[in-house]
Each structure stands twice: as structure tokens, then as C-alpha cells.
Amino acid sequence: MNFQDGSLYPEHQDPLVITCAPYGPEWMPADFPEDIPVSMKEHVQKAVDCYNAGATVLHLHVREPDGKGSKRLSKFNELLDGIRSRVPGLVLQVGGSISFAPEDDGQVAKWLSDDTRHMLAELNPAPDQVTIAINSNQMNVVEQMLPEDLAGTSLGTPEGYRAYREMTIPAGPEWVEEHIRRLSAKGIQTHFQLANITQLETVERMMRRGVCNVPLILTWVAIGGGFDAPNLYNLANFVRAVPDGAVLTLETSMLNVLPVNMMAIALGLHVRCGIEDNIWTQDRKAKLGSIKQIEQLVRIARECSREVADAQQARRIYRIGEFYGSAQETLAKNGFAPNRQASQRGFVQHALAA
């Protein structure tokens, strides 16, 4: 992305899209009972509350009545239907893992099978987005967490810590291409969750081959443990590699969430918050629920005079419902250089839309 003179001025930036992940599949309800929804009614009400607080994208997981993460797509259908009836403008983003929470005590957190995750394209009502990981990767979400982050929670137990320390993401190239094809065929947008710049390069190569004709709507997930660490150098390197036509959200974990989101607000990027990412105030003297996290970001955005997107603006910025017919159009719309033609020499400057 290019940052010309005036790029930091709010009048030159898109309204801020706030994504909230309020369902926290890695936590157990006892970790934060006043904020973690368990019943379907509570799940739907949490979505309404997030929207009313200022979030326009909702990252979905769902729980069974016993509080464990649900792996039943019928539960997702029920939640999607309930939210659509209450807040039809909210951008609904289903987590591509479905639920990585261990099914039983002592088991390792695990993403579901390739075939099961393909079934996300069959959800009814269809979500607006499904998140997708690129390239199989370690996802040790506790690696950069401190003992203070985990104190008094299920992740602070030996079995809970081990379960999430050993988690991996299966996302091989054949599965990824087929998944994008199925989502696109159903009018569901692919939202890329990228761990580092090499995964961004893989997405670009797919677009150049014409097997990924979608907008580059992506999140930089800086959580360590196989993903980038949330520091200024990694952030700047990743942002520099993202083309100008992309839409970039920043995501990290625990006490890194607020400072990284403050940088996103200042840079004209977009933010993600919620208890899936962090449950603490910055001094760790209290837990901080998803609604309070949204309200905090709205206040900071207003202090920076940056408008917060409403639902209609978020759908426009995220290009919901937009798909492309060729590699050439995809490259042009996302701001990549065109594919090099035979015998073409020198630097290729920019892509032209079909």
C-alpha cells in the first residue's frame, strides 16, 4: 500500500470497519460468564449488541448448550437466521475452522476435516463471508501469551494450554482452491486470514492463475506461534506488500489488540476486537467484554475524526457480492500489476481492468 502526503488525514480515509469476534471459542463459559453467550438467544442478542455499539462485521462461532464449541452446521444455520432477522445489514463472517475447540478434556484443539469445512458453502441462510487460511500452518495461539494473560482461565490449566499450543491449520493448495470455488459459486465472499507475507504471495499467485477471482479482503493475523508477531517491522513489511486495491484489517491477541488497532485507525486500515482476541483491560485489573471493546474503538476513532462505517458503508468497502470474471480483471481490481506477457521486458507498472 502507498502512503502519499495526506494519507493519514481522516478525510482521505475510508470509514472505519469494526469487526467483532464476541463468541470466543477458545474460552469456556466459566472463564468470562458475564460475557460469553451460551444459549442461542444469548448468541443472537450479542450480535445485536455488537451492531448497536458500532461493529458492522460479526465473526461467528457458536456453542452447544453445555458451553462447548459446536461443530454442527445446523447450529450455524440457526444462528445466521436469528441474526439476519434482527440485524439484516450486519456483515456475517463465519469462522472457517467452524470450531477448533477440543471436543473432550485432554484432546488437542483441531480444525475440522477438509470435507466438513467445504460444507460452509452450503450454510442456509448463506453468510456474507467465510474466513480462509492459506497454506497449512502451526497455530499456537498461546505462544506469545504471558502467564498473566491466562491466569484463572481454562487456558491456564496444563491440559488447556497444551490443547491450543499444539493446534495446526490444514490448508493445502488443492483444498484452498476448491473451497474458494465453492464459496464463490454460492455468492459467499472469501475473507483471507493471513499469517505472514508468504501467504499473501500465495494468494497473489492464485489470482494470477485465474483460480481466485475475488476481491482481496484480508486480515493480517499477528498472534505468533506460526504467525507474524505484532511488531512495527512485521506490520510495515506486510502493509507495504498489500496492493492498494485490497481492504486490510489488523488482528492480534491479548494486550496487543488495543495498540495494534490504534495503529490501524491512524493508518486508514480496519480493526478487529472481541473476546476471541482478548479478555483483559490494559492493566489486567478487570476483564473487558466485547461491547466495551467496540465502544473503546469508536471513541478512539472519533478522537481521530475518523468516521465509523455504518452497515451500508461496510458492505461497500468490503465489496460484498463482488466477483470477477478473469485473472486480468482480478489483478486490476485488487491493484496488482498485470501478468507478464510473452517476451515482455522491464517492470510491469499496473493492471488495466477488462
From TrEMBL:
Keywords: Metal-binding, Transferase, Zinc. It comes from the Bacteria. The keyword Transferase applies. Its cofactor is Zn(2+). This is 3-keto-5-aminohexanoate cleavage protein. It comes from Ramlibacter alkalitolerans.
